[in-house]
Amino acid sequence: MSTLASTPAQLDAITAGMDAWLEEQLRDNPIVDSVEHGEPGERRWYVRIKGEDKDVYSVWFTLGQRTLHFETYFMPAPEENAGACYEHLLKRNNKLYGITFAIGGEGAIYLVGQLANTAVSNDELDRILGTFYATVEQCFRSALRIGFASKFS
């Protein structure tokens, strides 16, 4: 990963590329429900995704000086079997590319990742969005059944 900070012109070019890619996704990708921008002056986007096992969720993209950070809130902190739930998802990290399961300060579970600004492209953005979608669809139900087992019996 490059340690050099992007110039303002480079950040503007990446921002324009993100805007164009997101506009295309909103128009052509059936899983993309909506796209919102962060506060004025922020380089942040909220992409609302329509899923099957998890009805809707948002992927946040935040452009920084060196990296494009992306994340989604996966599920709340497990109410039971927390260790087994965290272990189940952390083992899944071995099969993921570009994103990983992480535990937030409040115990909630997130999917997070980052990409060097120099690597941001439409192909990489497609891969990231697809990886989020596939991972949530493959892992959400099993994680809920472990972390909230009594609610499913």
Kindly summarize this structure in a few lines:
The chain has three helices and six strands; from the N terminus they run H-E-E-E-E-H-E-E-H. Strands 1-2-3-4-6-5 form a six-stranded antiparallel sheet. Helices cover 38% and strands 27% of the residues.
Give a written overview of the molecule.
The chain contains 3 helices and 6 strands, in the order H-E-E-E-E-H-E-E-H. The chain has helices spanning about 10-30, 80-90, 120-145, and strands spanning about 30-35, 45-50, 55-65, 65-75, 100-105, 110-115. A hairpin with a 6-residue loop joins strand 1 (about 30-35) and strand 2. A 6-stranded antiparallel β-sheet has the order 1-2-3-4-6-5. By secondary structure, it is α+β, with helices and mostly antiparallel strands. The longest helix has 26 residues, at about 120-145. The mean pLDDT is about 95. Helix content is about 40%, strand content about 25%. It has a single domain (about 10-150), classed as Yope Regulator, Chain: A, CATH 3.30.1460. The radius of gyration is 16 Å and the shape is globular. Helix 2 packs antiparallel against helix 3.
